[in-house]
Design the sequence.
């Protein structure tokens, strides 16, 4: 984990730790996200743009690092900067922190570089105490408002800073509501709210063993430190793990003058997007609540109104909001997700950031922006998260089957996609069921940040409360997880693990399905079907009838202009190869011949080959396999339309083609119980003996790869013959074909020399027999560290290299990729490893091995063609590394090809080769 550089210190001057914004001018701006966090940078940018932003200051992320380094102590010099900024803020606000007659109230808001819904709740109305609340009442002649603000403050401070469970406050609040016969919080008057405040004081005394802190400066210090502490809470850590956000970057703290959406019915608070974040449609989108504060909208306390209603209720503020957000979208050249408050008809902007969106929306918005000339195609490429493209390939329902089932209920369509699975009612159960291989739908009244792991593993998330900007909706969209929220007809009993709807009861384990694009929920299992894009590619739908298909292809076409690396696919069947070609793969980087051995009716022949105890019998079995392999290769070559096809000779240890030892023993025992000496029993016994002979302690490090070809050259011979015969046939048909024969697991140049000799001898013979020449290459996988370290010698024998990063990772770490699951999670929890190195290439440790392989290989052959064919070939952050070291291409599964094309273009635009 790289350390964050310390803030720059100029001679004689202490570093700047606190950044002011207010009165139309800010110390920071949007480029300072690292220091100010996303929220702080946005507030600074909006202030500089002259937008109505309440003044305040941002305590930088560096202070968070200091807080942890110094075990919770903040240096005096930082405290001094904070004190100075409080004075500045008091001046700008015309009010004083701790004053009784004219108190300054502030919010304390966390804000890291990346928005993290799992981190900390904002504290509003800080600065209130028993005296200031009276001052606020006198100043505004609004006692209800003053006490509503005070009880909110106590509630937030009590839970977030003092660690008192929210329920404790909620319980008292509810009981006052009940006593007064109130249904909504807005029904409570000043007298009732005073009562609430009294009860909250008791709660604090009882639970925290102290009185509610009355001194505003102390309140502020405590809140600031709570924000820093929240950076390391388990929810925040889990969130960072899922989204690959490093731990060391820390959070900033924003202290900002309060504006009030809860002064009455000319005030409001709300959130919105400049475009629809679920569908990408160009529509102003959001929700608000009259007479409310901050979190009310997202927390689902009252049902918010759609933002279009604001035009009717507060038209002037609405118009101003439209103007401002349109400007923001243009300025940031991206969809804005904004938060605002209206105090007595006056609009204030409280946040703006680039909006999270579904993969579907990302494609629509980027192509619309280009059509609107807001951005260029190049900017569009940089704006789209490559994973968006893979979301678009996710399946949907068969519409016929779907329509035949009655709708049980409808909720808000928060995140599109078809989901079907067993109902579970807690995040824990979701994890448990899905670990057992069962698809689940997580059903909750509402989700909380603690649910994040359960949401992650679920097929979809369904909630009964909350709006389009609730936690479930926001997180669902970001994960590309089908989600429906606010399905209020669901009567959920989370403890009893059941819900009822439409007169029916659904229990844990029952099947439901829903469509995240329409919001419809049905009580049945529904098979899903390929995405619209796949339907076009597979010929079921005309391209001109699919808007999303055309936009998808448009984006991919743009990427090709900026991409340096080629993109190939890992495919071993003609239909996979065709799909990959349609997605834009130009070539196959890895055709695993052993997959073909599992084809229809072949396993018995393969087993006969393995069981042979002499060369003659083995050759006889191989002769039977030859025509089958020839057909396989013919099909794959043809599907690739002349693009290069890399075929790897047999790689796995042979026992993988034989039955498991335990299974055989059970069968034998069964046969023996029934009869004696039958032929079947004899055969099984022979098989068992061979299985036992082939048994290895570490098959991954055993008799596999090139070692098989060396011990059984007739296998390499058969495979070479099949490849060349197929190639010659295509050549005779007048088609172009470019086979590349790849020897796996080479660690010593002499291994490759041995196998190239076999390949070349057979190839020459076949071409002579066929009377035609085809150009073929012989190369190797570099996946054993020794192979990389002696790549200069190996390059002397090889016409191309392909890095097998799965094995290279396995052998460099010494982690068996089949067993790593037993400890990887603990490694990640203990922060020994940030990421799974089998999913994201380990640049720090395996990277140098790969880089050495490239450098040594090209020292011998400057033009050596080098690619990568491990799983990492389809992983965007790994692709950035492959671009840097100058590989010629990446190869990945067919469905990842679009992702790889986009990621390769982004990598090429962002880095120089050889960096
Ligand atoms: P989050 O990061 O969870 O969105 P925020 O810091 O943005 O938390 O605060 C949440 C909400 O609290 C804001 O959307 C806004 O409605 C309210 N809020 C925050 N600061 C202020 C303020 N100074 N005045 C009024 N409302 C505020
Ligand atoms: Mg916010
Ligand atoms: Mg390998």
Sequence:
């Amino acid at each position: 984990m790289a350390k964050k550089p310390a803030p720059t210190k100029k001679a004689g001057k202490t570093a700047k730790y606190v950044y002011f914004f207010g009165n139309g001018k800010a110390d920071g701006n949007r480029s300072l996200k690292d220091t100010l966090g996303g929220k702080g940078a946005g507030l600074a940018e909006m202030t500089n743009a002259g937008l109505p932003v309440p003044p305040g200051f941002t305590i930088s992320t560096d202070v968070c690092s200091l807080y942890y380094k110094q075990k919770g102590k903040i240096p005096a010099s930082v405290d001094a900067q904070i004190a100075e900024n409080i004075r500045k803020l008091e001046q700008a606000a015309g009010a004083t922190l701790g004053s009784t007659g004219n108190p300054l109230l502030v919010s304390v808001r966390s804000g890291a570089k990346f928005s993290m819904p799992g981190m900390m709740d904002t504290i509003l109305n800080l600065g209130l105490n028993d005296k200031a609340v009276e001052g606020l009442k006198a100043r505004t002649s609004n006692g209800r408002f003053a006490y509503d603000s005070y009880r909110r403050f106590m509630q937030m401070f009590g839970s977030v800073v003092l660690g008192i469970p929210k329920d404790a406050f909620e319980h008292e609040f509810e009981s006052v509501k009940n006593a007064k016969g109130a249904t909504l919080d807005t029904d409570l008057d000043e007298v009732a709210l005073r009562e609430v405040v009294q009860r909250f004081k008791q709660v604090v005394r009882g639970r925290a063993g102290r009185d509610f802190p009355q001194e505003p400066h102390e309140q502020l210090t405590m809140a600031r430190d709570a924000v820093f502490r929240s950076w390391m809470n388990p929810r925040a850590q889990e969130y960072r793990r899922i989204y690959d956000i490093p731990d060391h970057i820390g959070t900033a703290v924003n202290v900002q003058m309060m504006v009030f959406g809860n002064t009455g019915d000319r005030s409001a608070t709300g959130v919105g997007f400049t475009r629809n974040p679920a569908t990408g449609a160009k529509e102003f989108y959001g929700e608000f609540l009259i007479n409310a504060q901050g979190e009310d909208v997202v927390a689902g306390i009252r049902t918010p109104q759609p933002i279009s209603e604001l035009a009717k209720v507060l038209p002037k503020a609405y118009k101003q909001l439209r103007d401002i957000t349109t400007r923001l979208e243009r300025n940031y050249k991206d969809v804005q997700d904004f938060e605002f408050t209206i105090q007595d008809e006056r609009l204030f902007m409280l946040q703006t950031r680039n909006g999270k969106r579904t993969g579907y929306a990302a494609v629509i918005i980027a192509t619309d922006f280009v059509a609107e000339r807001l951005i260029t195609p190049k900017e569009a490429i940089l704006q789209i998260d490559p994973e968006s493209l893979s979301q678009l390939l996710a399946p949907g329902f068969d519409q016929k089957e779907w329509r035949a089932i009655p709708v049980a209920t409808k909720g808000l369509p928060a995140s599109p996609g078809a989901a079907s699975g067993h109902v579970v009612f807690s995040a824990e159960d979701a994890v448990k069921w899905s670990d057992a291989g069962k698809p689940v739908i997580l059903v909750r009244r509402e989700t909380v940040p603690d649910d994040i792991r359960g949401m992650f593993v679920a097929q979809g998330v369904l909630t009964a409360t909350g709006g389009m900007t609730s936690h479930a909706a926001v997180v669902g969209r970001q994960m590309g997880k089908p989600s429906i929220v606010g399905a209020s007809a669901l009567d959920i009993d989370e403890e009893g693990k059941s819900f009822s709807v439409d007169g029916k009861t659904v229990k844990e384990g029952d099947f439901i399905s829903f469509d995240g694009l329409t919001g419809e929920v049905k009580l049945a299992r529904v098979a899903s079907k390929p995405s619209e894009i796949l339907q076009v590619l597979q010929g079921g739908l005309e391209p001109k009838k699919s808007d999303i298909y055309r936009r998808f292809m448009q984006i991919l076409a743009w990427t090709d202009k900026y991409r340096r690396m080629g993109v190939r696919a890992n495919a071993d069947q003609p239909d996979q190869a065709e799909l990959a070609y349609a997605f834009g793969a130009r070539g196959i980087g890895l055709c695993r011949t052993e997959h073909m051995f599992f084809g229809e009716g072949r396993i018995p022949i393969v087993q006969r080959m393995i069981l042979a105890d002499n060369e003659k019998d083995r050759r006889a079995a191989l002769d039977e396999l030859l025509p089958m392999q020839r057909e396989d290769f013919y099909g794959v070559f043809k599907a690739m339309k002349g693009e290069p096809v890399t075929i790897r000779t047999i790689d796995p240890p042979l026992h993988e083609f034989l039955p498991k030892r335990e299974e055989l023993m059970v069968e034998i025992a069964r046969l023996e119980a029934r009869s004696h000496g039958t032929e079947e029993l004899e055969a099984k016994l022979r098989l068992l003996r061979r299985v036992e002979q082939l048994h290895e302690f570490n098959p991954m490090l055993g008799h596999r790869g090139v070692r098989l070809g060396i011990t059984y050259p007739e296998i390499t011979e058969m495979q070479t013959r099949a490849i060349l015969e197929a190639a010659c046939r295509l050549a005779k048909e007048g088609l172009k074909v470019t086979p590349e024969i790849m020897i796996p697991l080479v660690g010593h140049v002499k291994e490759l020399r041995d196998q190239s000799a076999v390949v070349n001898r057979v190839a020459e013979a076949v071409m002579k027999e066929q009377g035609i020449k085809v150009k073929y290459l012989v190369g190797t996988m570099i996946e054993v560290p020794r192979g990389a370290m002696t790549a200069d010698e190996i390059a002397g024998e090889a016409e191309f290299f392909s890095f097998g990063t799965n094995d290279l990772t396995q052998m460099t770490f010494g982690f068996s990729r089949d067993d790593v699951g037993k400890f990887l999670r603990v490694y990640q929890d203990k922060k020994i490893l940030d990421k799974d190195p089998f999913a994201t290439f380990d640049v720090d440790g395996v990277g140098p091995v790969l880089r050495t392989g490239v450098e040594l290989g090209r020292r011998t052959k400057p033009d050596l063609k080098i690619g990568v064919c491990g799983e990492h070939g389809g992983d965007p952050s790994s692709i950035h590394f492959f671009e840097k070291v100058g590989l010629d291409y990446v190869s990945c599964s067919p469905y990842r090809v679009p992702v790889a094309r986009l990621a390769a273009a982004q990598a090429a635009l962002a880095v120089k080769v050889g960096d």
